[in-house]
Fold these 4 entries.
Entry 1:
Amino acid sequence: IRVCDGENGTEAIVEEQFVDRLKTSDSYLVIPSDKAGGVYKRMSALSFRASPREILRAAGKELGADLVVMGYLYCYRERKGYSYSVEQPASVAFSIHLIRVSDGAIVWNGLFDETQSSLMENVFHASSFFKGGGKWLTAEELSRQGVDELLKTFPRME
């Protein structure tokens, strides 16, 4: 996975897109991010030597959750230019993992890593270019496309 410089707070954009989309499923009851985040912060402060997965399990148990979601944002670079012409295209890379609280097993994971390219640069990505409306996307639009793509394989998404 490639890493690029991004602005602080951009992980909240991808998180919000993912959570909003997950809330549309009847298969999951989503615990509000602020509540879950607060429990995670408290648990991590109490457990200096625990791994992130162990902390997530503990937080999940306290919240009464069966599953917890963990994600990493590797790249969130905004396009330089306009929807019709760019100097530098948007680029987004993130991974999302679904962890079972009872045993800490990763039951699903997904990876999205894309830098938009023009039709002339890569004709094999024509469907992706036209999925974005045949224009240069912003990083937010590209990440939303990535969330939608990953959730197609997310367990029990309807």
Entry 2:
Amino acid sequence: LWTVPSERVAFMPSAAEGMAWLARGLDWRAGDNVVTTNLEFPSVAYAWRDLRARGVEVRLVEHRDWIVEEEDLLAAVDQRTRVVAVSQVSFYSGQNLRVEVLARGLQGTETLLAVDATHAAGAVVVRADLCDLCISSAYKWLLATHGVAPCYLSARAEQQLQASSYGWRN
């Protein structure tokens, strides 16, 4: 189901918390940006909205007839893009983004790839090993309970993050 080294998987309470944890934990500077889509599920979209007050641009790539092209997402990336944040499978359209195309397009950059796999995990293959953050709530196709979200964090992302909250779940 998930292709990733098991020692890099932890659990969080939800996909929304995982995305927010990434958004809070990076050292953002005015002029940085994050790239996402205008069809994002709130767990992805809301994580970035408060960054605007810190001078961070949130770039919303537009869909075309309910399809978001991977090439359009990559075209929105520049030297100041810190994160590309997407849902692997869109809750609006059911589109399964090609994570491998995004990962390949970001190779050689400092941009992190953050993927919410909630609508994918258990239904289609999730290539967490291609992501810097891959998180999935477990109450959809994984048929588990609320409050459990498998989370993969790459070594590269881990080096860039600072703790933003403390407690027994982190």
Entry 3:
Amino acid sequence: PTLRVNGKLLAPNGHAGRGGISWTLPRASRYDQIALSSAPGAKPTQVLLIDEGALPESAVTSGGQGLRISREWLHQDGTPVDLANINLGQIIYARVSIENHGNKAVPNSAVVDRFPAGLEIENASLGHSIRPSWVNPKDAWSVEHMNIRDDRVEAFGTLRANTTHRLVYALRAVTAGHFKVPTASAEAMYNPEIWSRQAGTLAVVKSPWASGEKVITQ
């Protein structure tokens, strides 16, 4: 087979095994025409296309249907956190509320709360289990499964009818800088018509070095 890019023959850059060959074409989207062809009478050709890249930033739909998700950032005493003024090393709490305002339970629900790169979760399974006084255990969502990752918390379970369920977890500011706060979302995994998404925002983690303060380490 041969590969032509805007009419010009492109030489292969490697072999893919079993007699196959491969091409690498950086920034392929800038070309008007990419054509792969085989010689007449050649055996059928199998093609594996690997496309890597980043989509341009676009508006993410927020709102929802059947569910409502909201996220708060709170201090230990329950007062709101100013996301534009987070101190390096500070611990803050994320409180995610998922409301099922329908008359039927929503089984197989997935809730994904993504947090900015400057924050790191304080894993309760590693002993970081300090519970603020404003946490009401009766409101806690009895999840069936939970994944804790570097950039998100994923929780799965049933959302009871006419009930607000809550997830609370601690985060520590570990990197100074300006960060985008991704969205938080909830959905019925087998019913795409039931969903909710809260739009993201911005967060700023400040370090004492940026303000010219002298830091003494021991």
Entry 4:
Amino acid sequence: DLPKQAKAGPDIKDSITVPNPKSEKTRLNITFGAGDLNLSSGAENLVDGSVVYNVKDLKPEVTSDGGNVEIKQGDFKGLPPLENVKKKWDLKLSHKPMDLTIPAGAYNGTYDLGGLALKSLTIKDGAADVKLNFSQPNATDMSVFRYETGVSNVKLSGLANANFNSMIFSSGAGDYTLDFTGTLKRNATVTVSSGLSNLIVVIPAGMNANVAVEGGLANVNAGSGWSQNGKL
């Protein structure tokens, strides 16, 4: 006996409000599958926003345990529908210092994280199309920014504003842009591991940087103003 297959229906719109935890340390986990995820600052609570979906099983679930908060999509109780599935989350985050983790699937992501107080940021996704921007400086020191992705199209901009101590970016094949514009407040280390991809690294004029490239099949084109030692 096979389970019944869920069916897409009319749009359902819900609001999400997650109060600020009373704990000194806040860890927010946003688990997202396929669909559209938009994140920005400006929440009065820890999280304010709205979600739209057309399969009842996808109703978001919010759990809280002290300073640990998770927002995740609901699980399909039967077989998932094969087409016409809609899911869109528009969420705003507060300026409360937090560790933010986003496990996601094949989705479209638009993030403006400027002005938040992120102590660490971890994003892990599959085949994704993501634009992430720190339009304003991060309000606290970030220990590490970790981004792991599959075969994706990802653009990260305003990275100097993230104020991280270290950044770790790993990916499969795809198109990637790492743009380090912004206000650099301290020295930082960036480690990039990528497959057969097109990788663009943007470092503004006047920002001191040493770039070391290691690998086999690689073609490196540096703009004017760079000095190069060695060949690949």
